[in-house]
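Wed. Picked up where I left off yesterday with Peroxidase. The coffee machine is broken again, so keeping this brief.
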Amino acid sequence: MLSTEFYDTSCPEAETIISSAMSQAIKRDPTLAASLLRLHFHDCFVQGCDASVFLDDTRNHVGEKSAAPNFQSLRGFDVIDTIKAELEKACPHTVSCSDILAAVARDSVVLSGGPKWNVEFGRRDSLMANKTAVLEGLPNPNSDVAGLLPKFEQVGMSLRDMVALSGGHTIGSAKCVFLKGQRPNSSCSRNESHGSLDQTPKLFDNNYYLNLLEKNGNGPEGFLESDNALVRSTLALELVQIYATNATAFFADLRTSMIKMGRVAPLLGSKGESGGPKWNVEFGRRDSLMANKTAVLEGLPNPNSDIAEKNKNGGFLESDNSLVKSTLALELVQVYAKNATAFFSDFTTSMIKMALLGSEGEVRINCHRMN
Ligand code: HEM
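Structure written out below (tokens, as returned):
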């Protein structure tokens, strides 16, 4: 389970190292804040927040970087590399690339004047990336709300999350080919390649939403079609109006939605039809050339079957009831009893681990390559 205390013992200096490197990077080039925030979004919406976005192509594998929304568009990889190198020195092989990116996204917002939240940690880095998953995961800048919303819903996010997170477009720039709004964009009208997403591209404020509201009957003045689409949906428009008039409400919802986005993982899928969690089954096993009867008793735990009836602890088997007789196991039983999401998440992780015998994910030493 993700936790804000995940590195408290294993790498207590992690957040300080990340934040001070980020302050220096943003001081050198303030435009990196927007690019790094976007990197986290592009990581989380494709296969979950697992640093799959960082993987370079190899001879056997084409990663996400060359997919249309990312190609010649994503920036900031060198900032992550610098931070990763520092963390490897301080706490070798401990802090995952995906966790670094989650903290960097938060710092990007804070250093641009936006809200602060406590970042949850504990992600592991993927062992694969998939170019085609990028288009399946990411929303299209020419979509309307009916096209955008399913991309958020498929990772467990709501319309409210979508409108709040779109406020990320209060910082940064985009290629002029994407410009659809009515507001004249000085750089684009000077035939430059990129224009600012709003009038204050280094400041995390609520200008983005003010631009979307009609001022003179000319239509919304967002940059992308997907920005302007928000005011053409009644439900989204209500939120745009709230955020445009109340920056505090925008900041509060952004905080909540960023934490939620940081929790997106393929292994936390909630789309299971039978009511339980769903995960991506990994394939590649081979079938055995032998079987051995005695290995069964050696391998499987003993349920102590003479007590195989409902006893006073309510579980069926002695092995079930024994879980509450160990303090450590009892703690987990209590967490899972109260919180089905935590149970589903850990159950999923452990199922995959069981199939792989301990090789699920990793903490990459270099964010661009699997170890
Ligand atoms: C609603 C769906 C979204 C669509 C269709 C979309 C699309 C785009 C596009 C096309 C660009 C310009 C890319 C380029 O010119 O190369 C862009 C830039 C950007 N996006 Fe989004 N985006 C969406 C949601 C988000 C979210 C959820 C975030 C973060 C919370 C975000 C953060 C950014 C930032 C900060 C930039 C500027 C990047 C820079 O200056 O380097 N976007 N987005």
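Quick read: Strands lie at 173-175, 194-196.
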